[in-house]
Structure prediction request, 216 residues.
Amino acid sequence: MENAKHAFWQAFFLTMLFFLVGLVLGVYLEQIRSDNFSIAFYDSEVSLYDSFALGKLLDSNITSCDALKKTTLDFADKIYNEAIELERFDEKNKLTDSMKSVHRKYDLLRTLLWMNAIGMKEKCGQINTVVYIYVYDTQDIEARARQIVWARVLRDLKEKEGDNVLLIPIASDQKIGTLDYLADFYNVKQFPAVIINEEDVFYEQKSVDELMNYLK
Prediction:
């Protein structure tokens, strides 16, 4: 009887030990992921400030429009690829508050990028902007399905057009006042929505070829 009790307590303590080790390891790995995305965010933030700095130089004719466009496109590609990684992480994991905060920071960066692109067009002429505004936290199955299709179409458009298109996906439900203002200014009534060159707004699904007709 004593041996049975002894074996029970041994098994109990071992179980608790493995549980606690697993819990600590899980929290540690989650923190590492969060830290990695935070580092990536701060890197992108530096790139954005660099892009704005070039815009200031353009006012004094120290830099060229070609240099400004290249820097902006490089920055857009950088945060777009980072956003894809973040979305993949979203699909596989339940996000912590810190990870949600990182996602919100990225949406703010992309909103600032859109603003910078609008200003750059006024100084340097045409560059094709394709802004995709979607709902990040939605339980609507139909809306999620539309957003998945839109994301695939726009990804194909970007791959086909390359540097001819500045693709900027932004979540609409992150409480970013500047984005709300821009959406209202361009008369965006619902989400998801795709805005091409601040002129044409699409809610219904379009193919890559159809969207290309609106590029310049």
User: Anything to note?
Assistant: Helices lie at 2-59, 65-92, 97-124, 141-161, 177-185, 208-212. Residues 2-212 form a domain with the Glutaredoxin fold (CATH 3.40.30.10).
